[in-house]
Specification:
By secondary structure, the chain is α/β, with parallel strands linked by helices. The protein folds into two domains: about 230 residues, 3-Layer(aba) Sandwich (Rossmann fold); about 170 residues, 3-Layer(aba) Sandwich (Rossmann fold), CATH 3.40.50.2000. Helices cover about 40% and strands about 10% of the residues. It contains 15 helices and twelve strands.
Length: about 425
């Protein structure tokens, strides 16, 4: 299994999903070797092997390695195209021309030290990661290859070509989710090639499955939906968390980018505050729209009731949920969206956009069109002011999400593996 990040070193839902899914597979007796570009040493390993690609030494004389070296190409991408990334911290270097002889030893060496991040040499790292995959695939014993999202598709393809073993690619997001209609062609091409070369394709929702079929031309019979899940947690220490404010708290938690719909959250907050000033709104996260959101909050004169926390991770997320009365995810395009599940397991009612994959699996959540600010404001106001509604969503929502488990998702993943292996 090839991934790009792994807890606790994550920037969003991709690493969380990889961890949960891997644990679920292990519970069903599947042996997993999870490869990451860079392991930091403090990752949680529960019954599976974590391989640090930075530790792999390549045989530069190996025939397969030399063939792959000849085919490596680099391309330019835009900072907003990397999944689960804060674009304000991302600067991409362009290496579009042929590599000069002087840089050959730097680019192609026996061993690479990966950053494991979305940094200035991202596309070099994607290609090097695929090169490491050829070494791993030729020296390992396995039955199936599983590649998560476009950053690892070249590695999955390389491993398939070296080993002859079936490839399953897992689509957690597409270029259309990240960029709308302004797609970056090279990234789209990587995605399409990965899906085309794969024996089977897994998508995180039916919404994403339809995009894969319609926009990438992938045959419907090899695209399977396996919805994401959530890790059950028992953190009794959160029961005593104090808000330190008397008002109700409404929370947005995610990347502050176009895809997540933060501007709709701000406009809905303004409408709610006009009806009830006894509410505080929190925008937890960072992204390229953050400064614009701060300016808009100031223009609306609601800054005294609106808080920006910056990026939250791990225990900070759980603490934020423990202080929240409503969680809102107004995403414009959300392949799935794990955060509403995390909120519901913390007994927080949720309002989500109909344009999200998670809306396919949740019954006890209020669902609105992302663009309908009035409906969004009404949903928030209703949960805050109608006690019976709030209690109903808390009671049945918690019960519902407690049954959306990774070990159940893993059963469906194993079915896909079997289809790939026994074709």
């Amino acid at each position: 299994m090839f991934g790009w990040e792994f807890p606790p070193h994550i920037t969003g839902g991709l690493g969380t999903a990889c961890f949960g899914l891997t644990k679920g597979l292990v519970k069903h007796g599947i042996g997993v070797t999870f490869v990451v570009p860079k392991a930091f040493g403090d990752e949680t390993k529960e019954g599976f092997r974590l391989v640090n690609a930075s530790d792999i030494v390549l045989d530069m004389e190996q025939h397969e390695t030399r063939l792959f070296l000849e085919k490596i190409q680099y391309m330019e991408i835009g900072s907003n195209l990397v999944p689960y990334l804060d674009p304000e911290e991302f600067e991409i270097a362009v290496t579009a021309q042929k590599l000069e002889e002087s840089s050959e030893h730097k680019i192609f060496s026996k061993q690479y030290t990966f950053s494991g991040k979305y940094g200035p040499n991202l596309m070099e790292e994607v290609s090097r990661y695929a090169l490491v995959a050829t070494s791993l695939a030729s020296a390992s014993d396995f039955d199936v290859i599983h590649a998560h999202d476009w950053l690892t598709y070249p590695a999955g393809i390389a491993a398939k070509k070296i080993s002859g073993k079936p490839l399953v690619v897992h689509v957690h997001a597409t270029e259309f989710d990240r960029s709308g209609e302004n797609v970056n062609q090279p990234v789209y091409d990587i995605e399409r090639q990965g899906m085309t070369e794969a024996d089977e394709v897994i998508t995180v929702s039916n919404l994403t499955r339809q995009i894969v079929i319609d926009r990438y031309g992938i045959p419907a019979e090899k695209v399977f939906t396996v919805h994401n899940a959530v890790e059950p947690v028992d953190r009794p220490e959160l029961e005593g968390v104090t808000k330190h404010v008397k008002e109700k708290v409404v929370t947005f938690l995610g990347r502050v980018t176009f895809q997540k719909g933060p501007d709709y959250f701000v406009e809905a907050a303004y409408k709610v505050l006009k009806r009830d000033s006894n509410v505080r709104f929190v925008m937890a996260g960072s992204g390229d729209l953050l400064n614009r959101m701060i300016r808009r909050v100031a223009q609306l004169k609601i800054a005294t009731k609106f808080h920006f926390t910056g990026f939250l991770s791990g225990p900070e997320v759980d603490t934020m949920f423990a202080m929240s009365d409503v969680y809102v995810m107004p995403s414009v395009s959300e392949p799935f969206g794990i955060s509403p599940l995390e909120a519901m397991r913390s007994n927080v009612p949720v309002v989500i956009s109909k344009q999200s994959g998670v809306a396919e699996v949740l019954q006890h959540a209020l669902k609105v069109d992302f663009w309908d600010i009035d409906a969004l404001a009404d949903a928030i106001y209703g949960i805050l002011h109608y006690d019976g509604l709030r209690k109903m969503f808390i009671r049945y929502g918690k019960s519902e999400v407690d049954n959306i488990l990774w070990e159940n998702a893993a059963v469906n993943i194993i079915d896909v593996y079997n289809k790939a292996v026994y074709k």
